[in-house]
Amino acid sequence: MPSFLSCVAPLCRAFRPLAIFNHKTHRQNPLFAALFSSSSRPRSTVSAERSREVIKTKQRRLSVIHDPYLNRGTGFSADERERLCLRGLVPPREQQLEQQIKRVMATYYRQRSNLDKFQYLSLLMDRNTVLFYRILNDYFPELAPIVYTPTVGEACQKFHAIYRRTRGMYFSMDDRNHFRTMVYNWPRPHVDVIVVTDGSRVLALGDLGCNSMNIPIGKLALYVSAAGLNPLRVLPVVLDVGTDNDELRENSLYLGLPKKRLKGQAYLELIDEWISAIRQRWPDVLIQFEDFSSDVANTLLERHRYASAPVFNDDIQSTGCVAVATILSSLRARGKPISAITNETIVCTGAGSAGLGVCHAIVDAMVDAGSSRDEAYSRFYVLDKDGLLGEGATNRVHESAHKFIRSDLEDGMKLEDVVRKVQPSILLGLSGQGGLFTEQIIRDMAKFQKQPVILPMSNPSDASECTASDTFRWTNGRAIFASGSPFNNVTLGDGQLCHSNQANNVYSFPGLGLAVTALRISCVTDSMFLAAAKRIAQLLPDREVQNGLLFPPVKDLRSVSAEVAAAVGMVAVEEGLVREQIDDKLRTDAKAMHAFMHSQMWQPKYSHLVAEQAV
Ligand SMILES: O=C([O-])CC(=O)C(=O)O
Ligand SMILES: [Mg+2]
């Protein structure tokens, strides 16, 4: 039987010229809309109801305890102990999650370094899924910097040295022509979200090859924790296409293929083969490209975003979404209407895929607020490692940077000179260069602006272009500050409390994933990210925003994700991209959509284990 992809892909390709860059084309072209909105497997109509979960299992004895999704440690009920033949295999006293949390957290606090904490949590994740996610939810602000940026960066650098147990899937260049059978080695029938990396640019740490596996694992942990995706239905993937990191390649403990990176056409064909294998088994799955180096990130996104089912690039699109949300929220903080985004003057350091993704997303937001596209581009000054993109830059930068090239200033102009010359309202850091925003630059920003907006978005913390405490000291607390990796709030000598915000893509991708999964959205569009950004920027009351808080606290991420999912869902309905059968109320009522998204979240609770008769 022909696969979904083999039927749809040629059609999609035929329509690509219509679809590229303008998602609205989908909606306006009835054939395209029909193609994407027809359901590949009909299901019953979805409403806000959801039945209580019971897990049936044929497993007994130690195989129950050794399965992290079934394991409850000391938390098996008397009934489960009896029916699943666990009597005597666990200590006699039945405990609740509360006691288990207490024991785990006490052990966690005894770990000496952040890397030890990372490993301890990984072991917990391998052993007891519900307990891991309950703890991650309850202690999110404290644990997120361990399972995610910044510690996840160190855990990737040392992956080969600390490796204990496999999680996720590896597809290597030596496996070419086998991907279509390999996908069936994954033991679970349903997958909702895949985060995939080729490890070519891990955070700002460069090429870490196969060591990058902790990035997809970490991002998917956030999907589960922050948006209630089902942990049984997520799949972390590394595409091992070699590494140009000589040190790693020559290390005998390195776990990837000790080969140089595959490049060019052969590389693109490998990715095509992988996507087609994935689509063959899981036609609807959301694929998130993560930490691909700038030379391939855009190419891959453009090649696959409309040619197959839902795909997006986190570093380009979610970072763009969060940057727009940050700017809109900062306008509120500065007492301006959000339409005043059209008047911002923006200096962006970093012309890689993330930097340009952010700039393009801001251009879209300016156009949405009434600017012409050309006017919007004219508000930007973009720099790469060789300085300002002036007329000489055409040959050295990706095509998507061309619109940002300035003809009015000298090519290669230094950051400090650009800041003095153009007196920006916003300074964006996507350069991956820790400390790039010097005291002089930040002080100059504070000379030109009453409330300069300083956004060092590079990760992990060492790569941040400036720290929160320096920024607030150098601006006497007047700056509006948001960074990619977390910084503590700062109290200045005079007692003034300055809020350090975390403008991280965790505010956007989990909610997007929830919407795509719950509604079986067929294509991820830029307008979904814009709607999400506008929603995020409106979540806090004026009083808090005026105090310099730009986002709700990360402990409230589940509720942020429901808002993002609802905003994305409403756009998907409008654009005709929802494949799930949904009732009219969901189509028309934003509140019902929001409640629906909440109802779809997986909760880290021990659901009742029922012994199924083994045959
Ligand atoms: O992981 C993060 O915190 C943000 C991100 O995607 C990156 O920096 O590549
Ligand atoms: Mg990333």
From TrEMBL:
Q: Where does a divalent metal cation bind?
A: E290, D291, D315
Extent of the signal sequence: none
State the GO CC annotations.
mitochondrion
One example of a Gene Ontology biological process annotation: malate metabolic process
Q: Which UniProt keywords apply?
A: Metal-binding, Oxidoreductase
Pfam families from the UniProt entry = malic, Malic_M
Instruction: List each copy of the Malic enzyme NAD-binding domain by range.
Output: 316-573
User: SUPFAM superfamilies attached here?
Assistant: Aminoacid dehydrogenase-like, N-terminal domain, NAD(P)-binding Rossmann-fold domains
Keyword RNA-binding present in the record's keywords: the answer is: no
> Which parts of the sequence belong to the Malic enzyme N-terminal domain?
125-305
In which residues is (S)-malate bound? R201, N459, N504
The name of this protein is: Malic enzyme
Q: Give the originating organism.
A: Melanothamnus japonicus
